[in-house]
Amino acid sequence: MNTQTITLYNGVRIPNIGLGVYKTKEGTEVKQAIKKSLETGYRMIDTASIYKNEIGVGEAIGESDIAREDLFITTKLWNDDQGYETTLKAFDLSLKKLKLDYIDLYLIHWPVYGKYVETYRAFEKLYQEGRARVIGVCNFHIHHLEHLMDNSDIKPMVNQVELHPMLAQIELRNFCQKEQIQIEAWSPLMQGGEILENPIIKDIAKKYDKTPAQVILRWDIQNNIITIPKSITSSRIVENFNLFDFSLTEEELQKINTLDCHKRVGTNPDKYDFV
Ligand SMILES: NC(=O)c1ccc[n+]([C@@H]2O[C@H](COP(=O)([O-])OP(=O)(O)OC[C@H]3O[C@@H](n4cnc5c(N)ncnc54)[C@H](OP(=O)(O)O)[C@@H]3O)[C@@H](O)[C@H]2O)c1
């Protein structure tokens, strides 16, 4: 097993796979999942203040003997905390809960209208102070990114969005590639949903003696998309990382591309109710 990294436009290297911990319970559940993931070889953990498990994430990191600089920890600013001063406060609280003195990747969780530009100014300060090595956004459409870039100094380095073969986000990916904004895929497995039963994915999986989940995550990696599958099941944590001993052919990648039908399991950011 072998993980790989992608170099962001500011020179920071980010692993191309990490463990997502949305809906993973604070305490023993999140600690066990992280412990298993670190033993398996994962080095990136994706949490958020709204997941309410940052304390457990911090404890799991603290109890591991992996050097801090070899880990890549992501957390996110929740919508209620958007605004300049409130962002700085929320960042400090996340750091405290995680028992860290810097965050590798700090993300705006959703593009709250009228607030995200001011919020991002605080992100720029945190970046300039070296307290966040990488700053970015989640759930930004092209129009949000354009607006943000027109009103800020430091281009976001990452955009984390819902992305899987049924929501391939081609236009956004092309835009981000042109702008050197790295795409990360959330809900890469459609939260364990219908994509895992898709006959095209299942056929390809059979050929390589892999699972549908592994084929989808491999499709992410070969498309230069960072992926953060969530699992609390030890065998799946191992399975989802076991991606580096096979390669999909160009024809297989194209076949998977035909599954794109703009289907979301989460909310469209333009329809999100921020009140
Ligand atoms: N920025 C955002 O707005 C945003 C939004 C949503 C998610 N995220 C991040 O993205 C991460 C991943 O997304 P997600 O948690 O929504 O969904 P996901 O990773 O697509 O799917 C997780 C679900 O699939 C199951 N699963 C995992 N591996 C599997 C496998 N190999 N075979 C079959 N089922 C499998 C898990 O079950 P078990 O756990 O029971 O094994 C869980 O129910 C989150 O944890 C979070 O860190 C970010």
TL;DR of this structure?
The chain is an alpha/beta fold and 275 residues long. The chain has ten helices and ten strands.
The percentage of residues in β strands lies in: 15-25%
CATH topology: TIM Barrel
Gross morphology: globular
CATH architecture: Alpha-Beta Barrel
Q: Which structural class fits the helix and strand makeup?
A: alpha/beta
Give the spatial strand order of the biggest sheet: 3-4-5-6-7-8-9-10
Please, how many helices?
10
Main sheet makeup: 8 strands, parallel
Helix fraction by DSSP (H/I, runs of at least 4): 25-40%
Radius of gyration: 18 Å
Assembly state (oligomeric): single chain
Head-to-tail CA distance between termini: 45 Å
**H/E series, N to C?**
EEEHEHEHEHEHEHEHHEHH
Mean pLDDT: 97
Number of strands: 10
Poorly predicted runs = none
Named once each, the bound ligands are: NADP nicotinamide-adenine-dinucleotide phosphate
What is the total domain count?
A: 1
Could you give me the name of the CATH homologous superfamily? NADP-dependent oxidoreductase domain
CATH class: Alpha Beta
Enzyme class: oxidoreductase
Keywords: Oxidoreductase
Active site: 51
Organism: Xenorhabdus beddingii
